[in-house]
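Notes from hallway chat w/ T.B., transcribed later so I don't forget. T.B. wanted the structure written out for a chain they're using in a teaching module, and asked if we could keep both sequence and structure tokens in one place. Agreed to drop them here.
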Amino acid sequence: MRWLFLFLFPLLICADDISPTSEEIKPEASPVTLSSDAYQKQFSRTLIVTLVIVIGAFALIWFTRRLSKDRPLQMNHQKNLKILERRQISPNTYLYHMQIGSKQFVISESKLDVRLVASLDWEVPDSPV
């Protein structure tokens, strides 16, 4: 039902342009008809508005997915457990570079399990440069 609204919305916006004005109605004229030029103009407006809505919807979906991917990395600043980096290896497998306290680890995550890949032993500077 909501998809029907998206397709009819451009028609509702420009619906007042289709109705003839008082200047176009003449008493001696035959029934009111719109020229093919008016139909082309209305069709192009409807098409443009529909394209803008579709492009806007795809941009909104892309933007929210982009934000949701970065969210775990941004929430780490004041925590003891930090995800320093995340890399996607395959569609279902990720590598995480994590810091717990002063120790660093590399962990792999898949649909089946979570495994410790490596424990890193280098020093971590307290303040970023």
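Follow-up for T.B.: Strands lie at 81-90, 93-100, 103-109, 114-120. Might be a good example for the class.
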